[in-house]
Amino acid sequence: MQEILDASQASDWRRPDPAHTLYLELDSGRVVIELAPAFAPAHVANIEQLAKEGYWDGLSINRSQDNFVVQWGDAAENEADRKPLGEARATLPAEFERDADGLAFHVLPDADGWAAQVGFAGGFPAGRDTAAGLAWMAHCYGAVGAGRDVAADSSNGTELYVVTGQSPRQLDRNITVVGRVIDGMERLSVLPRGTGPLGFYEDAGQRTPIRAIHLASDVPDAERSALEVLRTDTPLFDELVEARRNRRDGWYKRPAGHIDLCNVPIPTRAVE
Amino acid sequence: MQEILDASQASDWRRPDPAHTLYLELDSGRVVIELAPAFAPAHVANIEQLAKEGYWDGLSINRSQDNFVVQWGDAAENEADRKPLGEARATLPAEFERDADGLAFHVLPDADGWAAQVGFAGGFPAGRDTAAGLAWMAHCYGAVGAGRDVAADSSNGTELYVVTGQSPRQLDRNITVVGRVIDGMERLSVLPRGTGPLGFYEDAGQRTPIRAIHLASDVPDAERSALEVLRTDTPLFDELVEARRNRRDGWYKRPAGHIDLCNVPIPTRAVE
Questions:
Q1: Is A190–B185 a contact, with Cβ atoms under 8 angstroms apart?
Q2: Chain A CB contacts of B185 below 8 Å
Q3: All domains of chain B, ordered by start, with CATH?
Q4: Which residues does B146 contact at the CB level (< 8 Å), separation at least 6?
Q5: Whole-angstrom distance, CA of residue A57 vs CA of residue A46
């Protein structure tokens, strides 16, 4: 894999749009989230509004469920104690899926049990059903989604979760995925697991404080994380996937002949 | 799922054999590993010998690679500094697969991209190829394997790893799986990620000390973890799998109609 990356050209990489990139600032450092307005335009717009207002600043990560997700938002139990949403919307339509038309979709030829077709769209692992004309983002490691209650349209982006375990693909098409962590996953995946139901912390003191969540475009240039993400629609990416599907180094005695959507690495690199 | 478990009978549960159960004792508490002599008899026998000798006592967890594995063993770089193996064997045959004949295999009917067939054998997630007459344990979350070098027969069970991320099924049939963590995964999955190559810690001080690894049968009754694991070969288990394959509660708007081998929960419960 490293050999393939070493042979990459500048055009094999892309720079995530700072206007659609979140910085989650923890005491342990920064987590970088690329938002996906092509899949969840209303949620992404609301999340960006919330970030501009400093909505999450001073809130906390309230949940860490082993082999599943971490989640942050407003832990206040009473409506009256909750942080005001400012100009952000309190309710949004469900954005579980989108029209497959007009969406560039780079197909992964490998079989998948959860979706008719899987692949990558805009750099995000995704599923597609061409018969139904629908596409959606997949719950792979690092996927960021908008927590909701029972009603499909009960999410507004204030409660966000990140997948930290085995891909819970049963959530696909059941909840709005808004983006993906592209750097700093290890700051989330190591958080102590909560011992309450669903991995919520039982004591407020166990929560992880959120210093701030900012849009990258609202952060001075010098403080931005200069990152590039490998494009997923290039011959080089296909080559990388094949190198992982059938590993040819001496260690592997039996190439798998298959790769799961959520086992495909999407490399990120720091740039000057 | 809880409703189904609440309706379970004593016969739906099994008690892992203490003679084939390891207790990994960390400062944070105990991790319980069920060994699988039916799949890896030589490795399991060697691991049990090493545990009896206290081989790992005072060694450490030396590697934590995000979304992949933690690993422990002897971190000494020079052969001369390594802990002696005592009566344990220094080399073992590879036990990547076993004969499928004579192995009770409870088939999971769901499609799988990595194996002709998947299911459960002796309570362990497993793959099978009936044409080839072979079966093997699958690298799901919590799987415990024996690290090796390039040679297929270079593992002896001293270096053990545990899967802490998205199921790395490409390792199936390439390395000897020796068992599965049945309790305490959250003590391993939160370990800080190492910043060296492959997630090894760069400083010895970052390693997690191992107080001891004992066989449960060598621990006094009063100090044993009294655990039962749900049997995977019962109608109740099938019912539980179906409840997860097609979730019928109000929250899910679209049952997946599918479940991946590594998304099937195998519940454990504490007993008196």
A1: no
A2: 66-67
A3: 19-229 (2.40.100.10)
A4: B40, B43, B47, B155, B156, B157, B159, B160, B161, B175, B176, B177, B178
A5: 16
ipTM entry: 0.97
- Of A48, A105, A99, A72, the residue nearest A201 (C-alpha): A72
- What residue in A sits closest to B172 (Cα-Cα)? A256
Task: Tell me how close the Cα of A153 comes to any Cα of chain B, in angstroms.
Answer: 11
B183-212 tens-digit pLDDT: 999 999 999 999 999 999 999 999 999 999
Token pair of A198, please?
Answer: 């669903």
Which strand (E) or helix (H) includes residue A43?
A: helix A41-52
How far is it, in rounded angstroms, from Cα A22 to Cα A14? Answer: 17
- Interface contact B186-A193, CB threshold 8 A: yes
Give the span between the Cα atoms of B126 and B139, in whole angstroms: 8
Q: Which pLDDT tens digit goes with each residue over A175-206? A: 999 999 999 999 999 999 999 999 999 999 99
* A262 vs A133: CA distance, rounded Å: 22
Rounded to whole angstroms, the Cα distance separating A24 from A56 reads 9
Task: Kindly list the residues from chain B whose CB atom is less than 8 angstroms away from the CB atom of residue A132.
Answer: none
Largest CA distance in chain A: 62
CB B65 within 8 A of CB B194: yes
Phi and psi for A214 in degrees, rounded to 5? -120, 155
